[in-house]
Design a protein that fits this description.
2 copies of one chain form a homodimer. With about 575 residues, chain A is α/β, with parallel strands linked by helices. Helix content of chain A is about 30%, strand content about 25%. Chain A has helices at about 1-10, 15-20, 220-230, 235-250, 295-305, 345-365, 380-390, 425-435, 460-470, 510-530, 535-545, 560-574; strands at about 45-50, 65-70, 75-85, 90-95, 100, 105, 110-120, 145-150, 155, 160-170, 180-190, 190-205, 215-220, 255-260, 280, 290, 310-315, 320-325, 330-335, 370-375, 395-400, 415, 440, 475, 510. At the A-B interface, helix 1, strand 15, helix 5 and helix 6 of A face helix 1, strand 15, helix 5 and helix 6 of B.
Chain lengths: ~575, ~575
């Protein structure tokens, strides 16, 4: 009965307006002194730094030009600033093609975004962690933060404001090495402002993201997308809206598909809880039936977006230990509290896991699938692992640890919290050489480095350098897009620091995202250079990378300084 | 996966001990003066009245014999009392066969029950209704009440107590008229006590219950049975346990099968809420699927028990207006608040009702099915009726009213609260002559007549007489067996007066039940006599019956006196 869904969709229509046009930004709770605008007589355009978030109402310093460096196949970013004392209507931004003596990089390779301003909170150190229970927003200083990146459409710009413009330039692998010249042009109220820039393209080539080794594991939330846009879950429209979002993840080298095999694996901690992608029905005659329709549809879709490495299934160890199923006797969903190691736990999960293993094998997915369990104590992990082995001895396991586990030999993929050094270098090398990923993760902690809205942008790039320094396969974050209610206006959430739940925004990405991608590219470049460099150059590279092994930040911009210096060293060694 | 159910069942095993042996009765909060027992030197046996509840600890008056009257085919009751100053072990009761000059009635026709004692509360008049919110039991005077009837098994009897014994004698239709002599014999500690009694069997014959015209509509709760006995819902064991219970309903002329077509049609008001007997699934591609397995199984079972008249389906107008369905997208049950008359209400219910009508027709049940709506206001009844007609113009509707509705022409079966005279006699006659039932109902009110544990037993018989007097087709009660947690020990419930939720007990019936059946038999006898009597006798009968048209009770035993007098008049007219 399609009518019902149409009605549902129509009820939700007002929400879907989010998708139609960028919403009005909230007012700045800490506007800069309007007097400083007296020295700005006319709109002007210039360059800023990609590692700086420019306040909306403070007059910034501008650079007349900027020089970027890139490998062939690499993406590089730049941030320009349109500064205007008076309102401008229908501001339109264009990039020229880039030209060197030998070659041309088409303007189509230059993606232009407006940086937008969103409300954020800050870090508050309560008993060593700042993380939970932010329902009372008054505890935290609100600030309007430059973070979301939305594709630049003609827009009005308020007077006495800064509108940052973000460039994301993808150097074609076929581009000849050389120094390219380009221009950024802003059309505003009949006036044209231009600024030049250069990109030095090196002889080296970065492979396409699908070839990247970095194990990027960002948990995708399809439920948030359906709710945000007000479209029926798993409808064609839903998949259509998810495609650019998930292709963006794949374009950053995203390797892992996040699936929820039970309802609310994380106890509904996000604005949009993860429902079960697998239906479990206890029939009238007491048999189990499993429905993999959603799971199959979602996994196939993610693969079609380019995410093909691994399928992580959350979970057989939810924090609440509650397991739902549809009971055909009562025609409703029942929920049971089942403790690992008990006969009830086994009676519920064993038939499911056996059936699931058979289904995965039939799809040809079994070898890339992990049953995932995050931040659970060893006393329940052990019986859960035993049960998995009983269901199928070849089931792979993923585990994330925020403590030092006694024995992780059983796990295929492990992720360790940034704050912990759980494995020595030799163990990490041993695992990764066997193709078993070891990643690190940040979540609501540590304070630095992290990817909050108030984190210095370079801390996102730091993730790639830290992974390279520690020999890790990559990085895990628990939330790629678990958006709060209205993320493009207010990034704060009832729990955790702003931005903890998402790295990208509806219809776009973020400064954090772009810097994270740069760090991943750096990781790939380091690996290539380590293969190709020798002697003193290799030693110098390794020295530079090793600084990222451990670092306790004390000053906000340490990460930015470190990353910029390291990138400079790397360029000097090419 | 049967194992899961076995485990479930084993978890519930302690509960199922209820079924194994009668539980210990609770202590009497108002024991009689022990001194009165001084005059009882030895156990004795005698007759009491079926219209009296004998306190467990007070010495009663005994009659040496009793004379009963019955039609052929009728069931008649008697209450004997075993009175003992000292404990008796393994007391065993037997009835002789009944003999007259011409015939014998086998002892197998005499069913013997022990009357048991159960805790009850009372009526409390708060703002005109006494009904709700009894969680604080201290507001109500508790008393140990003689009500449940359990088949007499050898049992120990405490000293200084009364143990009433209930006889339910079914006169075979083939028994010759005459005066039959019988004996009740009690074996106690090697001593044998006997009391004689007579049954005068008239020449008239009462047909078998299946032929009775009385429209008995008592709502059955299969969910209570599964929970009480700790057996899986709709399992063979569950049906086995329900069979005697539901055959008992059929043997009283039960006409209506209660079905729940949505989850919790009465907002979980009973200890065991009614789940949906029909599964509704919204598939991934937005189509509806309906599962009638439980509905079909339950209806077929009830028919096999002898209840074949009508199938009442609750409801499309639940009090909470919440409608559940299984959503294959989220793999969980979702709940929607849908208001009658809205497009959403129609979008949800119309496809279901169409499909349901087709299913009922395919089963051959459509013509006997009513969609039932109880105590709902007219402004939502009207759009609900319109929707039903849109789904199928021939859908029958049942409605219960606790107010005066403007127009009930649309309804097939109506039930009116005892307190209201909603239809004049002509309208009632018109409807019933067309085969459209008109019943009355009592529930948590009125105070009298009713079938609470503290109601005089004859008030149950009063129901048949009131129906006869008003020209009604029969009687409706909202609860045949919506048992509280432990009904054989404590009949009180968190809401409503004790006994409001059930008329019979697990494994047996009740004094209230037996008297209700007698009233129904009286109704049938009145109808037969009205057909057969003429002149002054008919006039006398009608005069007697008409006293039950309306009656505001002020004295507890008015009902008993009225019923006994009327029954005597009826006997005199045969």
């Amino acid at each position: 009965m399609k009518l019902f869904h149409l009605l549902l969709a129509s009820l939700l229509l007002p929400l879907s307006l989010h998708a139609q046009k960028p919403c009005q930004e909230l007012g700045d709770p800490h506007p800069a002194d309007a007097a400083s605008w007296r020295r700005v007589s006319a709109p002007c355009l210039g360059w800023g730094s990609i590692d700086q978030r420019y306040p909306k109402t403070a007059v910034p310093q501008l650079n007349p030009t900027i020089r970027l460096s890139a490998w062939k196949g690499e993406r590089v970013n730049a941030q320009a600033l349109l500064v205007t004392p008076k309102p401008l209507s229908r501001v339109y931004v264009e990039a020229s093609s880039l030209r060197s003596g030998k070659g041309v990089i088409s303007s189509a390779q230059v993606k232009i975004y407006y940086v937008r301003y969103v409300m954020a909170d800050g870090w508050l150190d309560i008993h060593g962690h700042s993380n939970h229970h932010r329902a009372d927003k008054s505890q935290f200083d609100s600030s309007l933060v430059a973070d979301p990146l939305l594709p630049a459409q003609p827009m009005d710009v308020e007077g006495q404001t800064v509108r940052p413009i973000w460039l994301d330039i993808k150097i074609p692998a076929s581009a000849p090495a050389g120094k390219y010249q380009g221009t950024l042009r802003v059309n505003a109220d009949g006036r044209v402002l231009t600024v030049p820039y250069t990109v030095s393209v090196s002889k080296r080539t970065l492979p396409e993201p699908a070839q990247w080794k970095f194990h990027l594991d960002l948990w995708q939330n399809p439920y948030a997308v359906a709710r945000y846009y007000g479209v029926p879950l798993w409808s064609e429209e839903h998949f259509r809206l998810m495609r650019p979002l998930m292709e963006q993840y794949a374009a950053a080298g995203g390797k892992v598909i996040t699936t929820s095999i039970i309802q609310h694996p994380w106890n509904s901690q996000t604005e949009d809880p993860f429902e079960s992608m697998i239906g479990k029905t206890l029939t009238l005659d007491g048999h189990w039936q499993y429905d993999y329709s959603v799971f199959d549809k979602w996994v196939s879709f993610m693969m079609s977006c380019g995410v093909k490495g691994q399928i992580d299934c959350y979970t057989i160890l939810p924090w609440h230990l509650r397991f739902d199923y549809y009971d055909a006797r009562t025609n409703c969903t029942l929920s049971r509290h089942l403790k690992p190691g008990t006969a009830d736990y086994e009676a519920f999960l064993l038939p499911f896991l056996k059936d699931f293993a058979a289904h995965l094998k039939q799809k040809g997915w079994f070898d890339r699938t992990c049953i995932a369990m995050d931040e659970r104590p060893m006393d329940i992990l052990t019986p859960a692992h035993q049960l998995l082995r009983k269901a199928d001895p070849d089931f792979k396991i993923e585990g994330a640890f925020n403590y030092f586990p006694k024995d992780v030999s059983d796990l295929h993929d492990i992720s360790v919290a940034y704050e912990y050094d759980l494995l020595d270098g030799a163990s990490v090398r041993q695992r990764t050489s066997q193709g078993r990923p070891v990643t690190f993760y940040t979540c609501c902690g540590p304070q630095r480095p992290n990817t909050f809205l108030f984190s210095p942008p370079a801390e996102s790039a730091y993730m790639g350098w830290h992974a390279a320094a520690s020999g890790y396969s990559g990085y895990l974050r628990w939330a790629y897009n678990s958006w709060p209610q209205d993320p493009l206006r207010d990034a704060r959430f009832r729990t955790w620091p702003a931005g903890d739940c998402f790295l990208v925004y509806p219809g776009g990405s973020s400064i954090r995202w772009m810097r994270l991608v740069q760090g991943i590219q750096d990781y790939e470049k380091i690996a290539i250079l380590r293969d190709q460099l020798k002697g003193r150059k290799l030693q110098k590279l390794n020295q530079t990378v090793s600084k990222f092994r451990t670092n306790k930040f004390t000053v906000d911009n340490d990460a930015g300084r470190m990353v910029r210096e390291a990138e400079q060293v790397m360029r000097s060694l090419e």
